[in-house]
Amino acid sequence: MALNRRNFLGAAATMSATLAAPMVRAQGRPHVVVIGGGCGGATAARYLAKDSEGAIDVTLIEPQRTYYTCFFGNLYIGGFEQYDDLGHSYSTLAAAYGINVIHDLAMGVDKDAKTVTIASGETLSYDKLVISPGIDFLEDSVPGWSLAAQDAMPHAYKGGTQVALLKAQIEAMPEGGRYAMVAPPNPYRCPPGPYERISMVAHLLKETNPTAKILIVDPKEKFSKQGLFEEGWQNHYSGMIERIGPDFGADNTEVDPAAMVINVDGVEEKVDVCNVIPGQKAGWIAHAAGVTDGNWAPVMPDTMRSRLDDHIYVLGDASEQGDMPKSGFSANSQAKVAAMTIRGELTGSRVFPARYSNTCWSLIATEDGVKVGASYEPTEEKIASTGSFISQTGEDAALRKQTYEESLGWYAGITADMFS
Amino acid sequence: MPNEAMRGDARFVPLRCVLMRICAAALLAVAWPVAAAELTGDPARGEELWQECSGCHLIGRDAVDAVGPHLNGLFGRRAAAHGDFPYSDGLVRMGADGLVWDFETLDAYVENPLALVSDTRMGYPGLEDPQERADLLAFVRLYSDSPADIPEAPRTANPSNHDIAPEILALVGDAEYGAYLSSECKTCHQADGSAQGIPSITQWPEDAFVVAMHAYKRKLRPHAVMQMIAGRLNDEEIAALAAYFATIEP
């Protein structure tokens, strides 16, 4: 059709109407906005767009152009992974599935108007909203530490530059120096994560600075895979690692980032690197959206729908759902249930009973991998564990090597499930 | 390339598996169920059956590896743990996961090699008759020299039925349900069939998929994650997954 003045004017009129009324979407297709492009958000966006085959418009809001996985960040510290290999682009989500990827920050949610405002000032309307923002840190969780101190005492508990900073600090430690971790209180992202990190720091130091020492200041009495980690530390890093638990006052810890001092129940410890992993809460946009109750966002166990808003779903670390650990695997699993539910609501596609699963692999030393996992199903009250397994102490080297190789397969699998 | 060769083999074996199923259905019509508990292996009859194995496997004094590994000392040995024999990736994986050859696992493997090891290169369609398996294994175990690991008569007399009931194999899977269920698999198994540390399950023949999943469900195959995943799938759900994965485009 040749464009003449008359239909040009018509097109312009339609366009201005669209601008004036953001609720109107092209051709009336339902619109899902996803805030956060991690394991929950990227998976939800991909499955919604892929499975609805164009019947749903999907917008993904994520400030970072490259997503650096938090999982396997420890393996980068240990020297088993390259930093660049942990980075993933959103380009396939846009190109292959037509997802509208907006690299910007979500600033607010109006639940009544069903709109999201982003930092550019633009307002996006939604039929359903998925919030998957990961974690933020509790203020005053570790007295003396704040986000302003994250360069001196990195948390390295979000993927990317913080992890690179921590590795550089460890590599710059003086000979025979001391690395310390202030471990987080429950609940927190990736329960075995801090202890896999200890293993990987020990591996790095054993190779580059073998007289260096490691101190863990831990407010928890017990931790994930404890028997497996302690056996591995004894086998691989004997005499290198010391852990102070709450029985010796680790639940009363302060830090002084300027002096590089940790004060554990009145006893000062001077350290060279201090990795403070504070207590955690849902990412702030979940709080701003008004779907949190306390630190986390409660959700329905059968759908991941917010208990506080029928049109909002909360995934992953930020959600409070029951027995599932806060992990990338869990978020990916929850995203598929939410995507199926939302698609059913918006397009009438079949809806099946929810089922969830999780497995967490950890690397203790070269080719010494362990894992823990469980399957889950919704009950009235929560997402409940229906069965579980864990690696055993004393396993032989062939099985541990296989478990490690399996974790590489999982990394390739889950990142493909999010981004490819 | 070894991968190419393996894929070729994997395609070939399931075809035989299908043929075997057809034969099995014919046999079962007249002979089902076998009174398995009364079986005791007869090594003399087993030696006759061994002739079919001896084209690839040697056993006894001076036996060496041939097309397949020699089978001296097989009972009590971990799968794929013998010397430098170039086992298939699947057998190596099963061995690392803890599969040990005893009467029960060998009985399952001889009955249907694919039930235990999906990409085994053992070009053997399986032995349907429980009595013949008992006879064959009674013969093979004469060449295993650690008696403590060898099941004696009571164990031999209780072979379990490792086969899948024909009505389970006959289930027509709901591929749309399978597509949803598959999302749980795809966290680890890549839909495009590429495999790094976790094997591909894309475009498997449906019966091979069903047999493998039931083997995990019954804990014949050793792998904690897969036993857990398969453990909560019912027969229809396994059929649904098989129908879905058989047809997806990589």
Give your account of this protein's structure.
- The complex is a heterodimer of chains A (420) and B (250).
- Chain A has 10 helices and 24 strands.
- Chain A has 420 residues and is of the alpha/beta class.
- Chain B is mainly α.
- In chain B, helix 2 (43-50) packs across helix 6 (130-140) and helix 10 (206-217) crosses helix 11 (224-231).
- Chain B starts with a helix and ends with a helix.
- The model of chain B is unreliable at 1-38 and 147-162 (pLDDT under 50).
- The interface between A and B is medium-sized, with 38 and 31 residues.
Unreliable residue runs of chain B:
1-38, 147-162
Q: H/E element string of chain B?
A: HHHHHHHHHHHH
- What's the number of extended β-strand segments of chain A? 24
What is the strand tally of chain B? 0
Class based on secondary structure composition and strand pairing of chain A: alpha/beta
Strand content of chain A: 25-35%
Oligomer: heterodimer
Features:
heterodimer; A: 420 residues; 4-stranded parallel β-sheet; 10 helices; globular; disordered N terminus; B: 250 residues; 12 helices
